[in-house]
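Bench log, entry 3. Co-assembly request; chain sequences pasted below exactly as received.
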Amino acid sequence: MPEVTETHLPGVGVRHEFTTGRGDRVSVLVFRTGRREVALYDPHDPDAASAVLHLDEDDARTLTDLLGGNPVTEAVAGMQQIEGVVLDWIPVTASSSLAGVSIADGQIRTRTGASVVAIVRTDSTLPAPEPTEVLRAGDTVVAVGTVEGLRAMRQLLSG
Amino acid sequence: MNLLAAGSAEVAEAFVEIGTVALVLAVLARVATWLRITAIPLFLLGGLVVGEGQLIPLDVSDSYITLTGEIGVLLLLLALGLEYTAEELQTGLRTGARTGLLDALANFTPGFAIGLLLGWEPIAALLLGGVSWVSSSGVAAKVLSDLDRLGNRETPSILNLLVIEDLAMAAYLPIVAALVAGSDASTTVKNVAIALAVVVLILGLAMRWGRHLSSLLAGSTDESLLLSVFGVTLLVGGLAQELQVSAAIGAFLVGIAVSGPVQQRASALLTPLRDLFAAMFFFHFAFAIDPSDVVRSLLPAVALVLFTVPGKLLVGWAGARRIGVAVPGRIRAGTALIARGEFSVVIAALGATLADGSELAALAAGYVLLTVVIGPIAARVDARRLAARIAPRPQPAPT
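Structure output for the full assembly:
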């Protein structure tokens, strides 16, 4: 996840800002009143917002639903309530030794103690993938396990 | 008193006059929305036209309008005090003190100097310095949100400067109010000492007990919260006035003292009340000014504009530069600060009892009207094109 910087605007609210993967700068201004403004910045004048979307609280909720309305997201949100079980999203990088290797061949469960419960791809999501499923660079793996297990898996997949 | 029984001709006449004034102000507020400016300059113009010029004489209701205007100042300053949380004030002081100092030097000095050059007593000149010093947070906020600039990188520097000015006023207002009230050197010194002691006392109480006050108020209904804050404001204002500290400052300090979630609720509840009474205040301020005085003081007002518009541009530039904003953003920051407004009118009104008071009020009215028009227009200038002209540099390569 990209780094999000926070700026306090006295009398107004808080502005959260980050740079997208493609290099666009985006900010979300949360007003004290609950209103939101989403702004994009002008590449020629990076200090100025070139497009601003004004959202009231309902609009913001709708947009959040649309942006995060993936079935896996909801499943994850539900599972995070269980005590002792940790869930994480881990991107598979091209440099990973497991990119292009199936879940079974990579012996992920044996080596890390954590299980792959879903694979998220740009075009589709695979809930409960078969052990023969091959991981590709760019995939995001949803995994369940202990904190240590997930840390080990992150090293394998994103290392 | 029996308002409901028919018979009091004076009350009837006062109602008609106040009702007319309120309706005129309503139309002016509508025009302001249409012109996309704040309503303050139009309220001032309205007061000027109706006032001493005698276009629409208001004889009976003068004392009523005076009282509503007085309450208006209290609510205006209460709202200005409520605008920022205690943490925001502390952070502002930590990060913006240097820019704030530059602001005071660049914008207070011309007003003070012009007051002295006009042959005014030093206290009146001190007040004129205050008039030219403080930007209008109302106009700045409106410009930023109208032009969709709240997300811009230079915006924190603008808001921080407004916070600093707010804080500076907490010290400046009681001092000048005490100076105005003092008749000779020893009472003046005594008054200033009392004023500062009261400010320190109220701020100290606010720091120590403000949380208790706020949590005491937190559980109350809207109705009770509104009445509590309104009551505390008038009470503290009245007590401050008794101690020769202007009532307005008491109200301002109450605004600073109320914090936490109560602050937002109180602020939302009091906004309509403030709009009503503050409109009366601006109207009443200009009502007492002879329009021909404004015309006569136009020359010094323009001179003051010529010094203090560049003054604000400089401060905006410096503040935005400190947080790493490029040239166009620095220009935008300066233009957002040009307009003077509510504080300037309050400061000028403090000097009403001085020998040069009416001249000060006329000059301040002309000055506020000029900057309030120039500011939002300047803010719409294409800063990027201007920046390319004053500091040409190669365009960054598109990524």
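Chain B has 17 helices and no strands. Chain B touches chain A through 32 residues (CB under 8 Å).
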